[in-house]
Amino acid sequence: MEHLTLLILGAGWTSNFLIPLLQSSSIPFAATTTSGRTVSGVPTIPFKFDPANTPEEDLRTAISSLPAAKYILITFPLTGKGPSKALIELYNATHQSRSSSSSSSQEARFIQLGSTGIWGAGRTLAAPEDKQKVEKELAEKRGGDPWMDRHSPINSSNPRAIAEIELLSLGGMVLNLSGLWGGERQPQNWIPRVAATKEAVRGKTSLHLIHGEDIARAVVAIVTDDEEGDRWESGGGRGQRWMLTDGFVYDWWALLAGWAEDKKEGKVREQGGWVRELMEEEGVRALPRGMERLGRCYDSREFWRVWGVMPLRAGVLGEEGR
Ligand SMILES: NC(=O)c1ccc[n+]([C@@H]2O[C@H](COP(=O)([O-])OP(=O)(O)OC[C@H]3O[C@@H](n4cnc5c(N)ncnc54)[C@H](OP(=O)(O)O)[C@@H]3O)[C@@H](O)[C@H]2O)c1
Ligand SMILES: *[C@@H]1O[C@H](CO)[C@@H](O)[C@H](O)[C@H]1NC(C)=O
Ligand SMILES: *[C@@H]1O[C@H](CO)[C@@H](O)[C@H](O)[C@H]1NC(C)=O
Ligand SMILES: *[C@@H]1O[C@H](CO)[C@@H](O)[C@H](O)[C@H]1NC(C)=O
After folding, report:
1. Pocket flag, ligand 2, residue 62 (CB < 6 Å)
2. pLDDT in tens, 9-19
3. Reduced to 3 states, what is the DSSP secondary structure of residue 227?
4. Could you tell me which residues are beta bridge partners of residue 113?
5. Domain 4-183+208-248+298-319 falls in which CATH fold?
6. pTM of the model
């Protein structure tokens, strides 16, 4: 059987954007879900990776049954030490190329989707005051500099970070995604959850986003690159962690002020009024606030430069329900 270009392990939300782009680009691919359901009109292979609760032999059988592909995109989180190694080594051991025994370029290349949470307190900290404390400590460590990029230190005790570090050490690539939006995921819909009270709005600082279509374009650029050169081997892929945003640092207050009118419901949101009050209370003359007041600011230019892609869906304020 001919090798596929891409095997998607976990055809979830991102695949709503990725699968149509793979199809229109005529890139051979296959995808899995835990149930084998159809995603974007494509039947998927049932696959559930749970090494802690699966006997070694069953794990080996399940992984050896996956189709051979040049790139493997893992969209679900791996945590702690062990799972990344088990997946990569078992896949590698059961998918040795028959045509060539020598070249290491025959080894599958693993890409893990992660989140930018590892650079901060993450979503795991439920209490906002705990989160603010950790953020403050992190900012102090940076000497007050709000800027962070892919080279900034991560929280290596985060269980996802541990799994990613292992994957990187085995030659994989990690894409740490900022907030995912597009389709059903509209940032306006997050307002009741993240900005329910005036005090919650007071604590809202920066927001970083990446649209599903731009994630899809980034993945396609990576898996089709070897036609032109080999960015994977020359510092772009193997062992590299990247941060992906659309290049904007959004100010939550500016977004809430811009979304003061709920056009769908035909009413005014109270968050807009709270922002006006907070501007008076906190001495903010106009929006957006300056970077130094926004806490964390991500600089993700390097990914787009190295991989020669440009985000097309940047600037969420101008979007209306797309
Ligand atoms: N939400 C955000 O704003 C945000 C921000 C940054 C990064 N991220 C990260 O971005 C990544 C992609 O997100 P997404 O929304 O596309 O994910 P998603 O929709 O949850 O998709 C995950 C896919 O993986 C499959 N899956 C889950 N656990 C599995 C397991 N143990 N073994 C095999 N397959 C498994 C799921 O199968 P089923 O389809 O059968 O359920 C699903 O197809 C995630 O790692 C997420 O944490 C999210
Ligand atoms: C993959 O298998 C080859 C051949 O057995 C081996 O040399 C290589 O180290 C393996 N790579 C990984 C990441 O396990
Ligand atoms: C990315 O961030 C997630 C944060 O949740 C973290 O757990 C994960 O380890 C990081 N992955 C990457 C790719 O950084
Ligand atoms: C690092 O991650 C751990 C585990 O998720 C968490 O308990 C801790 O508060 C985090 N520390 C920092 C400085 O973000």
Report:
1. no
2. 999 999 999 99
3. helix
4. 175
5. Rossmann fold (3.40.50)
6. 0.91
